Amino acid sequence: MKNYSLTSYFLIAVSTRENLELCRKYSLAGFPSSIMGAWAFCDIRQGDRVSFLYGARVYDLYIVMEKYLEYDEKAPPPWKPLEFGSGKRRRRYFYPFRLRLKPLRIFNEPLTRIEFSYVAENLLLRGGYRKTHFQADRIDLGYASKLGVVVDNADIQDSINSSSSSELKFTFNKSKVDLPKIFPFREQILHAALRHYLSDEKKLEQFLTGLSIILSQETQWEVLGEKALPEGYVDILIKEAVPTGLSRKIIVEVKRGEATTRDFQQLKAYRKEFGEECIGAVLIAKRINKKLRRKFPEIKVVEYSIEGLADVFTFRELVNAIKIHMPE
Fold first, then answer.
1. What's the pLDDT at 245?
2. Shortest CA distance to 67 belongs to which of 94, 98, 42?
3. CB 301 within 8 A of CB 255
4. What is the structure's pLDDT at 307?
5. Band (205; pLDDT cuts 50, 70, 90)
6. Would the pLDDT of 158 be above 80?
7. Between β-strands 91-93 and 82-84, what pairing exists: parallel, antiparallel or unpaired?
8. Could you count the other beta carbons within 10 Å of the beta carbon of residue 117?
9. Cα separation of 253 and 273, whole Å?
10. Phi-psi category of 232—alpha, beta or left, where left has phi over 0 and alpha has psi -120 to 50?
């Protein structure tokens, strides 16, 4: 797998027209002080490409120059906080998880364009936004790179000096939780960490070789996050970046704890739905029962562990602490 690309493309969902205009004006993206915001902040890497998504329209193309944390609510831009519920159930979220962006292209296009078909399908099958970000594939990025007009970036700095910390932290210990600076470990964070883990070319090759899935050296592959289906979604999708005749895929389901019969049945159904172009279905879990492995031989299995972490750890430390093995 020599032709492998790490650059990912995301559409960032924006809650209001006012916030959209502020994002475009300041070339900044901000995620709310919730676990979903933390997930988005970790999932998107420096160097990735992003666009804004609002009102079923897609705006502009940017490169992520920097990720940083800003806990001062008065710091620009003046995004209005999100508020939900009332009384004791009232929740208020501001935008401490930020991306500094460099504009590449300016456009304002409907999501229904073929250029954004991958994300549009995910949105349609999930019945709406309800997420902070959506990962698109390389084909969508290629199309978006031809839309609108190119930005003259002569006056935009390529680097910035910031004293703000950029490392969001997590913990397995409830007593250490300190929102929105230290979050409890959740399955979404595990999904993102495993996607980053598998986005390393050598680790992906070792992972698939261990499962007896041999991929062509001439084919470019990409590792994507959540892919929606009519009756659910797979957590990770490994697919050909630019299909030529065939569009081969490997679907991966991730379970934080022990795998169950239902998990195997669900993944088996997902593979059937993808059809013949699905060349592998993989279940990753902390523990996998031998009887279930024998009962579902068409499902490939992997066990993971997380080793050597302190009580409080960063997302990068989490990715580096992941170990996987094929159960005997």
1. 81
2. 98
3. no
4. 93
5. confident
6. no
7. antiparallel
8. 16
9. 14
10. left
Q: What angle do CA 51, 126, 38 make, to 5 degrees?
A: 55
Q: Does residue 40 have a pLDDT over 80?
A: yes
Whole-model pTM: value is 0.91
The CATH code that applies to domain 9-166 is: 3.10.590.10
Residue 118 neighbours by CB under 8 Å, 6+ apart:
136, 137, 139, 140
Angle at 16 between CA 10 and CA 18, to 5 degrees: 110
Query: Which is nearest to 8 in space by CA: 156, 173, 226, 171?
Result: 226
Query: 3-state class of 133 per DSSP?
Result: strand
Q: How confident is the model at residue 111 (pLDDT cuts 50, 70, 90)?
A: very high
14 in Cβ contact with 54 (< 8 Å): yes
Residue 139: C-alpha distances to residues 9, 30, 135, 143, 309 (Å) = 10, 26, 12, 6, 37
- Measured between alpha carbons, how far apart are the two ends of the chain, in Å? 26
For residue 74, count CB atoms less than 10 angstroms from its CB and return exposed for 0-12, middle for 13-18, buried for 19 or more.
exposed
- Over the stretch 83-98, which tens digit does the pLDDT of each residue have? 887 777 788 899 999 9
Task: Check: CB of residue 57 under 8 Å from CB of residue 123.
Answer: no
Pairing of strands 9-13, 49-54: parallel
Residue-level pLDDT at 161: 40
Regarding the domain delimited by 189-325, which CATH topology (the fold level of the hierarchy) does it fall under? tt1808, chain A (3.90.1570)
For tokens 């172009």, name the residue.
277
Q: What are the extents of the domains in the chain?
A: 9-166, 189-325
Phi-psi region of 47 (alpha: psi -120 to 50; beta: other; left: phi over 0): left
Short-list 14, 277, 278, 252, CA closest to 134 = 14
Contact (Cβ atoms closer than 8 angstroms) between residue 132 and residue 13: yes
| 3-state SS track over 295-315 | HCCCCEEEEEEECCCCCEEEH
Six token digits for residue 138: 């390389």
